[in-house]
Amino acid sequence: LWRFGYSARLLKTNHFRTAASNTSFPAVWMLLAQYSGTIPGLFVVVKKPRFFTMPETVEDKANLELYSPPPEVRGMTLLNREAFKRTIVVPVLKVKKEIVSGLLKSLKHVVLQRPGLKRVVEDPEDENSRLLILDPHKILEFSLGEPEKEVLKQLSVYPKVSKYNLELTYENFKSEEILRAVLPEGQEVTSGFSRVGHIAHLNLRDHQLPYRYLIGQVIIDKNPGITCAVNKTSIIDSTYRNFQMEVLAGESNLVTKVKENSIAYELDFSKVYWNPRLSTEHGRIIELLKPGDVLFDVFAGVGPFAIPAARKKCHVFANDLNPESYSWLLHNCKLNKVDSKVKVFNMDGRDFLLGPVREELSKQLPLLKEQKTSFHIVMNLPALAIEFLDAFRHLLDGEPCSTAALPTVHCYSFSKHDDPTKDIQERAEASLGTSLDGRCSTYLVRNVAPNKEMLCISFQVPAEVLYKRPCPSEGKEQA
């Protein structure tokens, strides 16, 4: 699977393991499609990794030596770009300027490729010639290989390689190379970050904090469009889902515009929650909806579930306790021209379930014999959402007109358990007061940290949980 740049995570179910062991690679994906959601406890995730580190190769080690900034920059905490100048010796090929363009295409596999570096420079000895800079790792001992000699022969170019003193500056080094040269040897170096519009959001480790301002500036310098770098300084507040942050470099404007799944959102990153790593999950839930369905978004944030659902012609009820999120949710509904399709609330999640959700379900569920509407309730507050599930106990009165019409809940949670799918199911069952065996599916959303997973458990609320039936004595009195 890694060969294709994808990752897949499966629980060890004997049923799937036996089938997959005797199956060719392409057919494994057919098995996933067949069994996902039908085997209780099976959860699957298939996605391209957003952040990764390539394994170190022999060439990487050579690059470290040749393309490392000067040793004097070690321990630098305030960025001094001038200190990164260094001269290295590289091979060059002297050619007539008329054939440079064609030769570049023919020899592109051995031409030096560095950020901001010219591959062709003027020949100080001949204005009619140019020097083509070659990669010293591809032209060993300043000697061309037979394939390169054959190319030059066809173009009538003399295959002589010369030495050239090439000055490298701060602009020619990659961010990883700069940070590796600055931070103490042997310590972890990271140049990864989450991009939120023009903002780079870093989550630095303790040993990186003395260098945080330099790191922030390097991230801005090396990533076009990034004009502000921030570092998280506290854990996410479980009430409003925002966190304290420090501006490391660049402008202090934290109001930004992002685009996710072709939809634009505006927000103040310092006051609301936004995670670009959840775009795939937002899209997955929206794919489950059909035009005319009803979506209740209990912890809506700035609208990444609510707005695309409204654009899909669903009826949306969106709520968030954070006044800032509520304000930006209203703003984004207008921005995307769906404000007439989304009813927005600024309430505690439990009050939203016991109020608007109960009212709407009580009004619409009895009519479903004549309608083909599905009800979905999204609860994306992984730190606490499962604790709100008990609000569904006896939420409605009477009897269900159809079990197919029972609302489907998509509840998110974190788990540090060895068996996260079992953990989230057991905790959901404890809140609901009933078993979900055979009645739920669990989906791995992402790995949050070592030994910490974010999951989504989906299930139809059981009728015995959702409805409060009148006791026999009440029925006799009414008769």
From TrEMBL:
Residues 193-463 form the SAM-dependent methyltransferase TRM5/TYW2-type domain. It comes from the Eukaryota. SUPFAM superfamilies: S-adenosyl-L-methionine-dependent methyltransferases. The keyword Transferase applies. Keywords: Cytoplasm, Methyltransferase, Mitochondrion, Nucleus, S-adenosyl-L-methionine, Transferase, tRNA processing. Belongs to the class I-like SAM-binding methyltransferase superfamily. TRM5/TYW2 family. Involved in mitochondrial tRNA methylation. Specifically methylates the N1 position of guanosine-37 in various tRNAs. Methylation is not dependent on the nature of the nucleoside 5' of the target nucleoside. This is the first step in the biosynthesis of wybutosine (yW), a modified base adjacent to the anticodon of tRNAs and required for accurate decoding. This is TRM5 methyltransferase. It comes from Semnornis frantzii.
